[in-house]
Specification:
Elements: E1 2-4, E2 9-11, E3 20-24, E4 27-30, H1 31-47, E5 57-61, H2 65-77, E6 81-85, H3 90-100, E7 104-107, E8 119-124, E9 127-132, E10 147-153, E11 161-166, H4 167-180, E12 188-191, H5 201-210, E13 213-216, H6 219-222, H7 225-234, E14 239-242, E15 264-267, H8 274-283, E16 288-293, E17 303-307, H9 309-314, E18 322-323, E19 327-332, E20 335-340, E21 346-347, H10 351-357, E22 358-361, E23 364-376, E24 379-385, E25 389-392, E26 395-398, H11 399-407, E27 412-422, E28 425-435, H12 445-456, E29 465-468, H13 482-492
Parallel strand pairs: 3-13, 5-6, 5-7, 7-8, 12-13, 12-14, 14-15, 15-16, 28-29
Antiparallel strand pairs: 1-2, 3-4, 8-9, 10-11, 11-21, 16-17, 17-18, 19-20, 20-23, 22-23, 23-24, 25-26, 27-28
This protein binds adenosine monophosphate.
Adenosine monophosphate binds next to strand 16, strand 23 and strand 24.
Length: 493
């Protein structure tokens, strides 16, 4: 049994309906149960008249089976969803709510949510309870290429930006997953990323398209190598999906026997270190290591390459691969441009940014990634960024978003956030802050700053250190001089 992304229906019912479809942090369901729960969800939604909602719904929770049921039901209903994991502070969910104008939050967690002017539907233990009801706005007609989901990524203006991904893009992505990776229905996708990151879309959509099993791992499990390895062993996980940063495997490599069910290592999101790929290729001779590349704005990934001994020998810096079918990679003055159906319809309600980043090339959608790279025999190599976006521990962060939150604190005159790198890799981010004149210098401003940041930003965006400066050094253009700031920080540390 599997989910057909063309018809948005369950299909091939005769094949293995009793196989596990989803293992969540709160239970497991077979494919038969999965289909019937999706149907129940759709029936409930239609009974409320919500299948014609004008605005996307927020799906709140953390790795519950219900989240996956809701995703597939919402796809059938053609109601777009925004995944919001419990790791997000409430203020961030509130700004997503305001940007998206959502009328409905589906809460799969045990938390009681407190948001104004929205309906809140609790969906737990397969039961629906409307804990708050507010009017909903209905759409007059459905678009020809309805959105499936919106993922909010870090935004340089201080607010996250919503990347809109359409049905056509998801269909194109799942077709690639079915045809070119060798995955089979007996595979078990090991999920680590939370659903609000686009990396999770790999396993979230692929397990359905292939008719495989999805093994969700909570943050607590993912952060504890022993718990994670136990779960992989228990459920015979076969496809590992993560950023290279999340490869604790590296340090636990002598325990490979605990992971010998793995047939594929699928990486995306950051430069795959040569040393990591080499260890995996040597220690897991039966497994295939894939390096893939792409931003959220182009639906998970656009290029792929199998890293084997020959590639390792030839390339000290690993390539990120060839373009998937039906998409193209262009290099425009060093910048990687992605063209194809997988490109997003744009950022939600951000016409200014859309003009800058999304283009049309020969009638197709294109995205200017901000990544620098080059092609060698159609194989893409990644060289870095042309802006202030960084990856830290696998998380995508706009440094200006942190700086904006700092600048909004009423005791801060001016702040700047800089990355500290080793061998080209960001190791930590730190902020330098000039306080307003007249503020009480004996006060514990670091504690105040942390409180301010924690209320707005997820934990992975909090700088690991702060330093106070008397005056912001400026460069010739009148902007903060980041080189000077780095020197200043290192001298003071
Ligand atoms: P995200 O939208 O979180 O998936 O982050 C996308 C960004 O991660 C890209 O624009 C690149 O800067 C970086 N990235 C993604 N995949 C790779 C890769 N395989 N190697 C190097 N950088 C990557």
């Amino acid at each position: 049994m599997r989910f057909c992304f063309d018809t948005k229906q369950f299909t091939d019912q005769a094949i293995n309906p009793d196989k596990l479809a989803v293992v969540g942090e709160n239970g497991e369901i077979t494919w038969t149960e999965f289909e019937s729960r999706v149907t129940d969800f759709c029936t409930f939604f239609k009974s409320k008249g919500w299948d014609q909602l004008k605005f996307p719904v927020i799906l709140y929770g953390h790795k519950q089976v219900e989240m996956i049921v809701a995703v597939y039901a919402l796809m059938q209903l053609e109601v777009p969803y925004i995944p919001a994991d419990v790791i997000y502070p409430k203020d961030r969910v509130e700004s997503i709510k305001q940007i998206s104008k959502t009328n409905l939050i589906i809460n799969c967690s045990d938390e009681e949510l407190d948001f104004q002017d929205v309906s809140i539907l609790s969906f737990r233990n397969n039961a629906f309870e409307l804990s708050q009801e507010a009017p909903v706005i209905l759409a007059e007609e459905k678009p020809t290429d309805p959105l499936v989901y919106l993922i909010f990524t870090s935004g340089s203006t201080g607010e996250p930006k919503g990347v809109q991904i359409s049905t056509q893009a998801v269909r194109d992505f799942t077709q690639w997953m079915r045809e070119d990776f060798g995955f089979k229905p007996h595979d078990v996708f090991i999920n680590i990323a939370v659903l609000s990151f686009d990396l999770s879309v790999y396993e979230l959509m692929s397990f359905g398209a292939i008719g495989a099993t999805l093994l969700l791992n909570s943050k607590t499990v993912s952060e504890n190598p022993d718990l994670l390895m136990d779960r992989v062993q228990k459920y015979n996980g076969t496809i590992w999906v993560s950023t290279p940063s999340f490869s604790f495997i590296y340090s636990r490599i002598d325990e490979v026997s605990r992971l010998d069910s793995i047939r594929y290592f699928l990486f995306c999101g950051e430069l795959l270190p040569h040393s990591l790929a080499k260890v995996l290729v040597e220690k897991f001779p039966k497994a295939i290591v894939y390096n893939t590349y792409g931003p959220t704005e182009a639906t998970v990934a656009t290029t792929m390459i199998e890293i084997d001994a020959a590639i390792l020998d030839k390339h000290p810096i690993l390539p990120v691969g060839r373009s998937k079918p039906r998409s193209r990679i262009l290099i425009d003055q060093d910048e990687i441009v992605i063209v194809g159906k997988n490109v997003s319809l744009g950022y939600l309600n951000r016409p200014d940014l859309n003009v800058e980043k999304f283009i049309t090339i020969e009638g197709e959608r294109g995205f200017k990634t901000g990544d620098q790279g080059y092609l060698e025999d159609e194989v893409l190599f990644f060289k870095g960024r042309n802006d202030d976006q960084v990856k830290l521990h696998g998380f995508r962060i706009e440094l200006n978003e942190i700086t904006s939150v700092l600048n909004d604190l009423d005791f801060v005159l001016q702040a700047e956030t800089i990355p500290l790198k080793r061998n080209g890799e960001v190791k930590k981010i730190v902020s330098l802050i000039q306080l307003k004149t007249g503020v009480d210098e004996s006060k514990d401003w670091k504690a105040e700053i942390l409180e301010g940041l924690n209320s707005k930003l997820p934990y992975y965006m909090i700088p690991s250190d702060f330093k106070f400066i008397d005056k912001m050094p400026l460069n010739q253009n009148g902007k903060a001089d980041k080189k000077m700031l780095e020197q200043f920080y290192l001298a003071k540390s």
